[in-house]
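Q: Hi! First time doing this. I have a protein sequence and I read that you can turn it into a structure. Is that right? Here it is:
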Amino acid sequence: MVVLTIRGLGFGGVVPFLLFVLGIWFLRDYPRALSQQGFVIYSLAILCFLAGSLWGTAMQRRGADKLLRLVVSNGIVIFAALSVLTAQAVIAAGLLALGYLATLWYERSSGSRSGWYASLRLQLTLLVVALHIAYIAGLIARGTA
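A: Yes, that's right. Below is the predicted 3D structure, encoded as structure tokens:
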């Protein structure tokens, strides 16, 4: 039951990304601008959430591994915030997508999870990065990049 709930929450968390991307491609004026801003802000929030989960798992570790995980967690948040502060949606989205990939790489290289959770994280990360690419493509195609 818990695994099913985690999967549901994970894929449910992708829905706002999808809706914002659809807004970029198909809406006009204010709703489109809201989609543009919403995507970047939501991406920032989710990437910070993932960094927070690294912080939480650091508490179960010891020594240098614990310290590194805490520093990486904070570094991801700072990187994500600086990405958004570029005030350029294409650049921010590209950097945030890199942040998701870097977080996944760190999780896998530090052996933090295995089994179904690792598979879920891979699926969700690839889906979110693909939506970042669709978002960037929509901005460029619609001439607001």
